[in-house]
Design a protein that fits this description.
Layout (H helix, E strand, L loop, with lengths): L2 H7 L10 H18 L6 E5 L5 H8 L3 E6 L2 H9 L7 E5 L13 E6 L9 H14 E13 H11 L3 H4 L20 E2 L1 H8 L4 E8 L8 H5 L3 H14 L11 E8 L4
Parallel strand pairs: 1-2, 1-4, 2-3, 4-5, 5-6
Antiparallel strand pairs: 5-8, 7-8
């Protein structure tokens, strides 16, 4: 069993987006998914790294044709257990690095909302993006989620008191976290994302801070009444595309369009 499987087998990934502060990421991601496909009559959606199906199932229940690919069997079992058989959703076990089960240009929207969290080499990241580009039609969209470096420096290294533990082993001189499979999560900066995109016929539509400040004040957000939370979401949506704030968000969403004529 891999370290990644051990991690997800022991955690309630299903609950991560259900807290009120977790809803910020979920609602933001869904907002931009709909922006990409709502103008299409019968879009075909692929989610690679679908986890327990939070996004795939929601989209299928809205009537979209969805294919969900998940590497971790535990997550895939949970996803399948939530289906009642009426959803236009196909769920299979698979790897972001090998989408050979799908033909070229098969999907209008391809989502990698988890794989880049757990790919540690440039080679693997480029392979995952290459496969996403291959299976997405020209003019279609690719959505890629990332975990950002600076929130971990602020929250884990300083606020949680791990400075001495990580200084000599997990941090570069310019305060970039080093990642290996045993750390589970790969952390990036905006320039790292731009380097990946530069290798492919992709145009960025937007780079969005999907949770913004939500994790910094998660306890406070979880205690908000519905009126205050709705105002928080208004504020968040008004600021989540501000590029001066992107790197401080725990999670970002890169919205890319495959160039026509490719």
């Amino acid at each position: 069993m891999s370290l990644l499987e051990e991690y997800y087998n022991s955690r309630e990934e299903e609950n991560r987006l259900l807290s009120q502060h977790g809803q910020v990421e979920y609602l933001t991601t869904m907002k931009y998914i709909h922006e990409c496909i709502s103008h299409l009559s019968t879009p075909k959606v692929l989610e690679v790294g679908a986890g327990t199906g939070r996004y795939s199932i929601a989209l299928a229940r809205e009537g979209y044709s969805v294919t969900a690919v998940e590497l971790v069997q535990h997550n895939l079992d949970i996803l399948r257990s939530k289906l009642d058989g009426t959803e236009p959703l196909t769920a299979i076990r698979g790897d972001a690095l090998d989408l050979s089960a799908f033909q070229d240009r098969s999907f209008d929207l391809t989502m990698l909302l988890g794989p880049m969290y757990h790919l540690y080499t440039l080679k693997d990241k480029l392979q995952a993006l290459s496969e996403a580009v291959r299976v997405t039609r020209p003019g279609g969209y690719i959505l890629v989620a990332y975990c950002m470096n600076e929130p971990t420096i602020i929250q884990y290294v300083f606020l949680s008191g791990h400075l001495d533990e990580v200084t000599n082993t997990l941090l570069t001189e310019d305060w970039h976290c080093k990642s290996e499979p045993k750390e589970i999560f790969e952390l990036v900066r905006t320039e790292d994302i731009a380097l990946l995109n530069s290798r492919f016929p992709l145009d960025r539509v937007k780079l969005v801070a999907t949770d913004g400040a939500a994790h910094y004040i998660s306890g406070f957000i979880d205690e908000m009444d519905q009126h205050t939370f709705s105002k928080w979401m208004e504020y968040h949506f008004a600021t989540c595309e501000r590029q001066d704030l992107i790197g401080a968000s725990n999670h970002t969403l890169d919205i890319l369009k495959v160039r026509e004529g490719q």
